[in-house]
């Protein structure tokens, strides 16, 4: 198998501090990957340059099909629970059960990803996901499905996700190596959002025409295709890193590492606010589709597709990002919250749809930026544990936020729930921005004469 390039293991690399500037790393951190900074505009032909790698190209094609089917299952599952129970809170409980295992057991999944072959873990997880989707399909198509069936399967699928997600995040590095890692993460996000654009639309059509069962069946078939894709990858072309040896205190070491690096800790904190308050948007969209706009299953699929449309634009924009800084990641989180607040005040479905397109854009700008910053700032030997902590916050937070927002939407008002959903991360981003600016001695300079950059963040000492 091809080893990683020597530069990823033998050269002392710069560490990016909270202000986004490079400094010499401590001795125990010499394996940290550098944070690529592109000084010039990238040619458009390089927007998806990571697809030049054959293994990643195969993976991306299979991933695209799987994502479409996954979105179909998500939309069908939420709408089915809403129709069976008549309760938005029940939809939130379904989301919570699916994400609760990541909140409880996420770090152990990262430890497994660091110690064992990521490709084998993914094959096992996708095989189990196929069985679960097929079970849902049989129950729905035979008309015997009940809400508790969906609850149980959502919980078991959450346990599978505990192993799948950290292994999938680290496996991207094994597919493309360090050179194309940032681009590959953005390509994955683009694929996911393009699937999110197509999947909800197809789910809306299927729900209206033949019911939820066929959406579950499609996801089962897609999981099988993902397993086939993983089996045909060329193992000799993978950038496989040596598995971390078993040792005492592996989880504590990963936690200390994450807490000690600003480019991991602050994105991790912002991901927590986004996850708890703003990542359960489908729950709120179900409430708006059913109770506010009365547009049914087709309208629910359309609203999710509009979010995905904005997110697709954000994913493509992230591949063109010239600089990746901590402050830009925090800014994107704040803009996502602000757009959700704007949507909560929309007087009609047209204005609501426009606002959630913008929210989808800023959400993906945050998610890709924070993912890239966390991955590239962590050593390969500990990256599985670091990413599992990040995923634990990002996914596990939805286990808390889903029922909470569903309850607010049902017992108060969907508009109030959406205002809370956006307001909390927007305030958190503002607070973190002030803290980082004070720590790095940064200040905001306003120069209305400069039409290109009327607002600039500058070093306070240098400005003085």
Q: Explain this structure to me?
A:
This protein has helices at residues 7-10, 54-85, 88-115, 118-141, 147-176, 181-209, 213-232, 250-259, 262-278, 281-292, 296-319, 326-344, 349-376, 383-411, 414-439, 460-463, and strands spanning 15-16, 22-23, 442-446, 455-459. With 464 residues, it is mainly alpha-helical. The chain has a single domain (47-236, 249-463), classed as MFS general substrate transporter like domains (Growth Hormone, Chain: A, Up-down Bundle). The model is unreliable at 1-40 (pLDDT under 50). This is MFS family permease. It comes from Arthrobacter nitrophenolicus.
Tell me the major beta sheet.
2 strands, antiparallel
Element pattern in H and E: HEEHHHHHHHHHHHHHHEEH
Strand order of the largest sheet: 1-2
Instruction: Assign a percent range to the helix content.
Output: over 70%
CATH topology: Growth Hormone, Chain: A
* Average of the residue pLDDT scores: 78
Residue share in β-strands:
under 5%
Return the domain count.
Answer: 1
Q: Care to count the β-strands?
A: 4
Which of globular, elongated, flat, extended, rod-shaped describes the shape? globular
Q: What's the name of the CATH homologous superfamily?
A: MFS general substrate transporter like domains
Can you identify the CATH class?
Mainly Alpha
The gyration radius over C-alpha positions equals 22 Å
| Category from helices, strands and their pairing | mainly alpha
> Which architecture does the CATH hierarchy give at level 2?
Up-down Bundle
- Report the uncertain regions: 1-40
End-to-end distance: 55 Å
| Number of DSSP helical runs | 16
Protein name: MFS family permease
Organism: Arthrobacter nitrophenolicus
